[in-house]
Specification:
Blueprint lengths: L52 E3 L5 E3 L2 E5 L5 H22 L6 H9 L11 E8 L9 E12 L2 E9 L8 H15 L4 E6 L4 H9 L3 E3 L10 E6 L2
Helix pairs in contact: 1-2
Amino acid sequence: MTRPPEPAPPTAAPVPAPADDAPHPEANDPRPEAEGRRTEPGGPGAGTDTSRSGTDGRGREESGAWSVAAEPPGSPTAAVLWREYCTEVADRWYLLHLGRRGTPEEITSCLAAESGEELAHPHGELLVARRAGRDAAGGTEVAGCAGVRLPGPGTAELTRVYVRPVLRRSGAGRALVAAAEVSARRLGAHRLRLDTRLDLVEALALYRHCGFVEIPAYNAGPYAETWWEKPLG
């Protein structure tokens, strides 16, 4: 859980950093990313979801068109995604509770609260989903990220799961969660767990779809409201 910054007087509340699942929020669509259909980014979907998961032989996890690979937590790509992630989940909380978005100062303070060092080997991994030839210039398109950290032997935590709004319902969220499971096993974990907020209903739907089940609280995070776990075979 990201620690909230000090409130900015006179009207600002602490930035409600996302709980450690770090969902990919979709404010108007509570359906999981996969419900037996494939959806093009930004448009209605129909037909069968043909996404598949597997390893390409070079340490990258693939799901359909998405390729998920490890990313240095301090890279420029990681920094951009982390800012988008913090901005969206904080804005969502503020809009729900205070009727406004977070200020730039509040977002910057939230960003400064975590360095991402816990997602570096040997105790964690940051993953980024990409696909080639799909952006406006025909280059590599970055969809989002997910983090896995190993706080203790045998148990990994899922964090920073974020998919850019225009690429939601494209299979990227499922690809990131699947890759996170592979990463957790590689780190020696036999279970993957997370905590999240109850208002992030899209994240809850995604985790249910991916086989997570609700469990009793395992931490006392200030914004953690529900806890989930999946055994890793």
